[in-house]
Specification:
126 residues; mainly alpha; elongated
Length: 126
Protein backbone atom coordinates (compact mmCIF):
# COMPACT_ATOMS: atom_id res chain seq x y z
CA UNK A 1 0.00 0.00 0.00
CA UNK A 2 1.39 3.33 -1.04
CA UNK A 3 0.63 6.49 0.88
CA UNK A 4 0.28 9.92 -0.64
CA UNK A 5 2.76 12.61 0.42
CA UNK A 6 -0.01 14.29 2.44
CA UNK A 7 -0.76 11.03 4.29
CA UNK A 8 2.95 10.58 4.96
CA UNK A 9 3.09 14.11 6.37
CA UNK A 10 0.15 13.45 8.71
CA UNK A 11 1.78 10.24 9.95
CA UNK A 12 5.06 12.05 10.59
CA UNK A 13 3.21 14.81 12.47
CA UNK A 14 1.25 12.34 14.60
CA UNK A 15 4.41 10.38 15.48
CA UNK A 16 6.24 13.59 16.35
CA UNK A 17 3.36 14.83 18.47
CA UNK A 18 3.27 11.54 20.39
CA UNK A 19 7.05 11.56 20.98
CA UNK A 20 7.04 15.19 22.10
CA UNK A 21 4.12 14.58 24.48
CA UNK A 22 6.22 11.80 26.01
CA UNK A 23 9.24 14.10 26.15
CA UNK A 24 7.18 16.79 27.88
CA UNK A 25 5.95 14.30 30.47
CA UNK A 26 9.52 13.12 31.16
CA UNK A 27 10.83 16.67 31.46
CA UNK A 28 7.96 17.64 33.76
CA UNK A 29 8.72 14.61 35.95
CA UNK A 30 12.36 15.74 36.20
CA UNK A 31 11.29 19.25 37.12
CA UNK A 32 8.96 17.92 39.81
CA UNK A 33 11.49 15.43 41.23
CA UNK A 34 14.68 17.45 41.33
CA UNK A 35 14.98 20.48 43.65
CA UNK A 36 16.93 22.25 40.89
CA UNK A 37 14.79 20.68 38.18
CA UNK A 38 13.23 23.92 37.06
CA UNK A 39 16.63 25.50 36.51
CA UNK A 40 17.96 22.45 34.66
CA UNK A 41 14.94 21.59 32.53
CA UNK A 42 12.77 24.68 32.05
CA UNK A 43 14.36 25.74 28.74
CA UNK A 44 13.85 22.25 27.30
CA UNK A 45 10.28 22.16 28.58
CA UNK A 46 9.57 25.54 26.98
CA UNK A 47 10.83 24.36 23.58
CA UNK A 48 8.70 21.21 23.77
CA UNK A 49 5.63 23.26 24.68
CA UNK A 50 6.28 25.66 21.80
CA UNK A 51 6.87 22.77 19.40
CA UNK A 52 3.56 21.16 20.39
CA UNK A 53 1.75 24.50 20.07
CA UNK A 54 3.18 24.91 16.58
CA UNK A 55 2.02 21.43 15.62
CA UNK A 56 -1.50 22.17 16.83
CA UNK A 57 -1.69 24.91 14.19
CA UNK A 58 -1.32 22.33 11.40
CA UNK A 59 -4.72 21.86 9.73
CA UNK A 60 -3.74 18.29 8.81
CA UNK A 61 -3.76 17.29 12.49
CA UNK A 62 -7.36 18.43 12.93
CA UNK A 63 -8.45 15.12 11.42
CA UNK A 64 -6.01 13.02 13.44
CA UNK A 65 -7.41 10.94 16.30
CA UNK A 66 -6.85 12.26 19.83
CA UNK A 67 -3.85 10.90 21.66
CA UNK A 68 -4.10 8.74 24.76
CA UNK A 69 -2.57 10.12 27.95
CA UNK A 70 1.16 9.60 28.34
CA UNK A 71 2.40 7.12 30.95
CA UNK A 72 6.06 7.09 31.82
CA UNK A 73 7.66 3.80 32.76
CA UNK A 74 10.50 3.69 35.24
CA UNK A 75 12.81 2.60 32.41
CA UNK A 76 11.97 5.64 30.30
CA UNK A 77 12.51 7.94 33.27
CA UNK A 78 15.94 6.38 33.94
CA UNK A 79 17.05 6.76 30.32
CA UNK A 80 15.51 10.20 29.91
CA UNK A 81 18.56 12.09 28.60
CA UNK A 82 19.17 9.51 25.85
CA UNK A 83 15.48 9.24 25.00
CA UNK A 84 15.05 13.01 24.87
CA UNK A 85 18.07 13.51 22.63
CA UNK A 86 16.92 10.79 20.22
CA UNK A 87 13.34 12.10 20.28
CA UNK A 88 14.44 15.67 19.53
CA UNK A 89 16.69 14.50 16.70
CA UNK A 90 13.92 12.35 15.20
CA UNK A 91 11.38 15.18 15.62
CA UNK A 92 13.59 17.58 13.71
CA UNK A 93 14.07 15.11 10.85
CA UNK A 94 10.36 14.17 10.77
CA UNK A 95 9.20 17.78 10.79
CA UNK A 96 11.44 18.71 7.89
CA UNK A 97 10.18 15.68 5.92
CA UNK A 98 6.59 16.58 6.80
CA UNK A 99 7.16 20.16 5.62
CA UNK A 100 8.36 18.83 2.25
CA UNK A 101 5.28 16.61 1.94
CA UNK A 102 2.74 19.05 3.38
CA UNK A 103 -0.36 19.54 1.29
CA UNK A 104 -0.98 23.19 2.11
CA UNK A 105 1.00 26.23 3.15
CA UNK A 106 -0.48 26.29 6.67
CA UNK A 107 0.75 22.74 7.29
CA UNK A 108 4.17 23.61 5.88
CA UNK A 109 4.51 26.69 8.08
CA UNK A 110 3.39 24.72 11.16
CA UNK A 111 6.02 22.06 10.40
CA UNK A 112 8.76 24.62 9.89
CA UNK A 113 7.89 26.50 13.07
CA UNK A 114 7.83 23.24 15.02
CA UNK A 115 11.18 22.25 13.47
CA UNK A 116 12.68 25.50 14.75
CA UNK A 117 11.74 24.48 18.30
CA UNK A 118 12.96 20.91 17.71
CA UNK A 119 16.34 22.30 16.67
CA UNK A 120 16.47 24.51 19.75
CA UNK A 121 15.51 21.55 21.95
CA UNK A 122 18.27 19.48 20.39
CA UNK A 123 20.77 22.28 21.06
CA UNK A 124 19.65 22.58 24.70
CA UNK A 125 19.89 18.85 25.31
CA UNK A 126 23.41 18.56 23.91
Amino acid sequence: MSYTPAEQAITLLMNTRRAMNEAKAIITAHIDRDPDGFLKWSAAENEVVELLASLERAPALELAPPQPPVRISDLTARTAPEFLLKAADAALANLLKAAERAEGPADMVACLRASLHAGRLLHILR
